[in-house]
Here is the input.
Amino acid sequence: MNVHQPSDQKRMARCSCGKIEPSNPATQFGFEYRGPGSRAAVENCGKCGYFECAHELAETGAPHLTHLVDHLFTPHGPYEFDSFYCGHAGWD
Here is the structure.
């Protein structure tokens, strides 16, 4: 699923360093839309942050994921910010 933000929606994007800018998928490196309908909003769990597929694996008894069986997968929903990389750590 590759969803892009609607043109009439004013969203902000945040880099992992904390820098925040207006979202611009055309010019921001590594841009990821994380608003309504995005992959992150639909496939990340709002309770633990793991993907839905990890919850499915936990149900099969995967030992490293047993902590995920204590709750049902619940989609995170839209994130406040999109994400991008500003270049703060260099480009190499």
Remarks:
- Helices lie at 39-43, 52-58.
- The chain has one domain: 12-85.
- The mean pLDDT is 89.
